[in-house]
Amino acid sequence: MLDFHLELNGKSARVGLHGLPVATPKQTVKYATGAGEVAGRRMITGIRKNLKTDYAALRDGDPELDLSLAGTQIDTDDTTPAYFDPNSATPRPVDDFNDIDIIFDASGVEKSRRPHLNRPSNINDVHPIKVTKRIPLSDALTEFAPKHTLQVAHVDGLSFDFLREFAADLVAKNEAARVGAGPKGNLPIVLRAHSSPYRGFLIGKAAPADRYQLLLVLSDQELKLPEARTASEANS
């Protein structure tokens, strides 16, 4: 569960943030033999991929196999991602590349490119996540494409009342609360370091008087219709 610093109606509290509970929890299956429990391990197969060879080499040997590495266990702590140029004659790791974000318009046409920013997490910062605007629930659900949905959870009795009252008010008024980070609440929400920035919306769900559900819906895409084309453009 993530720590979530939230401000509602002039009051702030650090509460919890976690994924939605599944309707049918997945059963944990364990395999065992007489010698003990069976566990999975990542191993190197020793097969050379994308190998270019000929019939004679295959007939006289095994160039597609690297027997010196076959069966070696892969230790996650000793590995790191590597990127290769698929057009290079000799495969080698590429280190001189830039991580960029490509922006598209509603028609799918590229608008601009910009360097990708590695943002730190800001959901448990000095400045709490703030409510900046209340909007109709239908607008929040139809004008933005949801990417992630998380549940805001209380951690004690005070935060229970704090969140339940706000969720009940959203349900009663059929509204969603737009939230943001930073001193003014106008910055996007970043869940984890180096992850994507999102617009955030708080949505309440109806529940009995002693229960509540407050959801944080995250979106990175606003739904817009493409501009209408003229007759000449449509026929071209």
Characterize the structure shown.
This protein is an alpha+beta fold. The chain has a domain at 2-16 and 117-222: Ku70, Chain: A, Domain 2, CATH 2.40.290.10. It contains 4 helices and 11 strands. A 7-stranded mixed β-barrel has the order 1-2-8-11-10-9-7. A two-stranded antiparallel sheet has the order 3-4. A hairpin with a 5-residue loop joins strand 5 and strand 6 (110-115). The relative contact order is 0.17. The mean pLDDT is 86.
Write the layout of secondary structure elements.
Layout: E1 2-8, E2 11-19, E3 31-33, E4 36-38, H1 55-60, E5 100-104, E6 110-115, E7 129-136, H2 137-142, E8 144-153, H3 157-173, E9 175-180, E10 199-205, E11 213-222, H4 231-235
Parallel strand pairs: 1-7
Antiparallel strand pairs: 1-2, 2-8, 3-4, 5-6, 7-9, 8-11, 9-10, 10-11
Summarize the structure.
The chain is an alpha+beta fold and about 240 residues long.
**Multimeric organization:** single chain
Tertiary shape: extended
Low-confidence stretches: none
The end-to-end span amounts to 54 Å
Residue share in β-strands: 25-35%
- Order of strands, widest sheet: 1-2-8-11-10-9-7
Known CATH architecture of the domain at 2-16 and 117-222:
Beta Barrel
Defining key terms:
alpha+beta, seven-stranded mixed β-barrel, 236 residues, Ku70, Chain: A, Domain 2
